[in-house]
Amino acid sequence: MNKLHAMDARGWGLILILSLLWGSAFYLNEIGLRGFPPNTLVLARMGGAALILLAFVWATGRRLPTDRAAWTQLSILGFLNVVLPFILFTWGQTQIDSGLASVLNATTPLWGVIAAHFLTKDEKATPLRLGGVIIGVAGVIVMIGGDAFGGIGGSVIAQLACLAATLCYALATIYSRRIGTAGLDPMTLATGQVVSAAIMMIPIALVTDRPWALPAPNMDVIGASLALALLSTSLAYILFFRLVALAGATNAMLVTFLMPVVAIALGTVMLDETLTINQIAGIFLIAFGLIALDGRLVPRLAARTNVP
């Protein structure tokens, strides 16, 4: 097995941290949308994250690339991994609830397995890996429960938009690994794509939302936007690109399975919500899916029982 397919404790640790950082993003988006239109919220998130990352690059003595080829790659990555999917998901959350959005987001590894099979040489799909993806997606659906699909027929365009965003994420993850092998480290990838995305979002937000004419946002909206920029974007992307380099593109997308788990855990602890049977069953299904995608336990069990 190629080493990119198996993860050690560092890889799983990064996935858990990312699930916390990104698992709260759906909730923060909902708060931000109370004061900002979708594209303005994306611009606020990207603009704040760009300033944070540039300050970090300057403070640590790093340098961003200066050649046109590198910035072309970073711009493509910023469009695929940030601009297009963030616009689609943020707009989608104005039409559907966060539960359904998180279910749709959890299809990212399925797209990732398929895309990696055709676009990479060392991350080919296997029956075990594909089965793990299917089990994981089923777990997310069971965990969220049937209530999340109460309006599934009424917001088809929004749902398709979210699915298109997950395909963008899958393609961007594979692309980030490809350009990462060209000498761009995780910090450069994170900063370059966010700066590029922020620049691209300026004319989009100006034309579609006319943000200068909007009323001043309240402190909850400002706080949510800052949290999205600092935690769910700046820190998260640095860790994500490190994970891609460490464990491969397909494994890096496993974090999408854990986002709904984090949302439920936060609700239980912070809001005194109660775990349901559906949620407990879904968590177990997700765990089985992750074990299958990790790809190490089944061969070990087969070896111990002398199964060929």
Describe the fold and architecture.
With 308 residues, the protein is an all-alpha fold. It contains 14 helices and no strands. Helix 3 packs antiparallel against helix 9, helix 5 packs antiparallel against helix 12 and helix 7 runs antiparallel to helix 13. The chain is globular. The N terminus and C terminus are likely disordered.
Task: Map the helices and strands.
Blueprint: H1 9-23, H2 25-32, H3 38-59, H4 68-92, H5 98-105, H6 108-119, H7 127-144, H8 156-180, H9 186-209, H10 219-247, H11 249-252, H12 255-270, H13 277-294, H14 297-304
Helix pairs in contact: 1-10, 1-12, 2-10, 3-4, 3-9, 3-10, 4-8, 4-9, 5-7, 5-8, 5-12, 6-8, 7-13, 9-10, 12-13
Radius of gyration: 19 Å
SSE topology string: HHHHHHHHHHHHHH
- Find the count of extended strands (DSSP E, 2+ residues): 0
N- to C-terminal separation? 16 Å
